[in-house]
Write a structure and sequence with these properties.
420 residues; alpha+beta; D-Maltodextrin-Binding Protein, domain 2; 2 domains; six-stranded mixed beta sheet; 14 helices; 10 strands; 11% strand; globular
Length: 420
C-alpha cells in the first residue's frame, strides 16, 4: 500500500453538506463478494461501513435514501460524501491518495480513469458484468475497472411548441432561429454557467463530427493542426458569437434557472441532456420535448455515451472492497437496487435484461439515439482541462464582447496544447 497523507481538513470541507449515516454498531465480518447476486439484496456482512463519493449531484438525495435502505437490509453502513459537482474530480484526486480516501467512487471513463488507473480495483468478477456490453464497461490496462451508471446523451433539448427541428438542420439555420426568437422575446438557446454546461458539452460536437474524432484530437494536442482552420470549428465560432449576441448570457444563469426557463416557455431550447428532465417535475410542463442534434456541418446525430462509472479504490482494505463489491451486486441485481437505478435515479438500462417502463421523454429520445450517435470525444480530453482552462476562457468570451469567436477557439486550442 502506498504511503499516504491524511486529509481530514479536505474531507471536512467536502462533507459540509454530507450525510453521515449512523449504523447499529454490529461487528464487521468478512464480506463475501457477490453475496447479493441472488437478487434478494442480502449481504454476507453483519455490519461494517464504507464510503461513497460520486459526481452526480442530481441523484444525491436518492442516494442518501438508498444508503438508509441498504443498511436496513444488510446492516452495512454507507457514508455518502457530498460534492459541489465542478470540483469533484479535483477533490477526488486529492482524497484518493490518502489513507482516508473513498472506497467506492465515480469517474468519467476515458482520460480520468486512465489517469487514475493505479487506484482502480479489478471488477471483472462481479456477476452481472457479463450482461453489460463491452463498449459500455470501462477497461484500463486490460482489466475491467468501471461499472457504467447509465447511458446519457446531450444536444438541443427543445420545446416542440416553439421549435420546428426540421428547420434548424444547419448552423446558419440555427443562427437564424436564434435571431427570430430574440425578436419574439424568447431565449432561443440557453447555456448555463456550470463548466460542462457552459462549454464542454457544446464543444464536443465540432470534435465529434470529424472523420476520425480521436485522431483529430491528438493532432490538436500535438500542435499539428489549429482548430480555427477547421470548417466545423469555424461554424462553432459563428454559433458561439450568435449565442452571445441573441441569447441570455449564460454566465449569469444557473443550471436550475436554465431548466426553469425552459420548463416555463421562456427558452425555446437549452443545450442539455436527458438528466435535465428531473428538473421539470416541479413545473406544469405540458409540451412535447425531445433532443435534437447540434447541426454543425449538417450533423444529424446526438452525442451518447457512458457519463460516469463506479470504481473501487484498490488501496481500500480487503473488507471495505468486499463490502463495496457486495453493494454493487445488490444495486445491479436485487429488486430494490434496480428500482433505484431505473425509477429513483431515472437511469437508462445498461445490463441486458434490465428494463424500465418509466423512461421520461428525454431518456427515451436518448435510448433511440444511442443506435446511431456521435461520440463523447470530451472523455479523452486531458483530465481536468474543462474546469481549469476551457470554462474560464469561455467565461471571458461571454463577458468580453470584443473577443471574436475565432479568438475563442484559438484560446481553447492553446489550452489543449498546454494541457498535454
Amino acid at each position: 500500500m502506498r504511503k499516504k497523507k491524511l486529509f481530514a481538513a479536505l474531507m471536512a470541507t467536502v462533507m459540509v453538506a454530507g450525510s453521515v449515516l449512523t449504523g447499529c454498531g454490529a461487528a464487521a465480518g468478512t464480506a463475501g463478494v457477490g453475496a447479493a447476486a441472488d437478487g434478494e439484496g442480502k449481504s454476507a456482512n453483519a455490519g461494517g461501513k464504507f464510503t461513497i463519493f460520486q459526481s452526480k449531484t442530481e441523484i444525491m438525495d436518492q442516494l442518501n435514501q438508498l444508503a438508509k435502505d441498504y443498511k436496513d437490509e444488510t446492516g452495512v453502513e454507507i457514508e455518502v460524501w457530498e460534492t459541489s459537482g465542478d470540483n469533484y474530480y479535483k477533490d477526488l484526486k486529492t482524497g484518493i491518495s490518502t489513507e482516508s480516501g473513498p472506497v467506492l467512487f465515480s469517474l468519467a471513463p476515458g482520460s480520468e480513469s486512465v489517469e487514475m488507473a493505479d487506484y482502480l480495483e479489478d471488477l471483472s468478477s462481479l456477476s452481472f458484468m457479463s450482461k453489460i456490453s463491452d463498449n459500455l464497461k470501462d477497461s484500463v490496462d486490460g482489466k475491467v475497472v468501471g461499472v457504467p451508471y447509465t447511458i446519457e446523451g446531450f444536444g438541443l433539448v427543445y420545446d416542440g411548441n416553439l421549435v420546428d427541428t426540421s428547420k434548424i438542420g444547419t448552423t446558419d439555420a440555427l443562427i437564424d432561429f436564434l435571431k427570430e426568437a430574440k425578436g419574439k422575446g424568447i431565449n432561443g438557446l440557453g447555456l448555463s454557467q456550470e463548466d460542462y454546461f457552459l462549454i464542454a458539452h457544446i464543444l464536443n460536437t465540432p470534435f465529434a463530427v470529424q472523420d476520425d474524432p480521436d485522431a483529430y484530437l491528438q493532432q490538436v494536442l500535438n500542435g499539428e493542426v489549429r482548430m480555427k482552420d477547421n470548417d466545423a470549428f469555424k461554424e462553432f465560432a459563428k454559433l458561439m458569437e450568435a449565442i452571445r449576441e441573441n441569447c441570455t448570457n449564460p454566465v449569469d444563469v444557473t443550471y436550475d434557472n436554465n431548466c426553469g426557463d425552459f420548463a416555463t416557455g421562456k427558452a425555446a431550447m437549452i443545450h442539455q441532456g436527458n438528466w435535465a428532465y428531473g428538473m421539470f417535475k416541479d413545473y406544469d410542463v405540458d409540451f412535447d420535448m425531445g433532443i435534437a442534434p447540434v447541426p454543425i456541418k449538417g450533423n444529424k446525430k446526438v452525442a451518447v455515451s457512458v457519463p460516469a462509472a463506479w470504481y473501487i479504490n484498490v488501496d481500500a482494505s480487503d473488507e471495505e472492497k468486499a463490502m463495496a463489491k457486495d453493494f454493487l451486486e445488490w444495486l445491479y441485481t436485487s429488486e430494490k437496487g434496480t428500482d433505484y437505478l431505473m425509477n429513483q435515479f431515472g437511469f437508462v438500462p445498461v445490463v441486458d435484461g434490465m428494463t424500465s417502463e418509466n423512461l421520461d421523454p428525454l431518456s427515451k429520445s436518448i435510448s433511440e439515439a444511442a443506435k446511431d450517435s456521435i461520440p463523447w470525444v470530451m472523455s479523452n480530453w486531458p483530465a481536468g482541462i474543462i474546469t481549469t482552462s476551457l470554462s474560464p476562457i469561455t467565461q471571458e468570451f461571454f463577458t468580453n464582447t470584443s473577443m471574436t469567436g475565432e479568438e475563442l477557439i484559438d484560446k481553447l486550442n492553446d489550452a489543449f496544447v498546454n494541457a498535454k
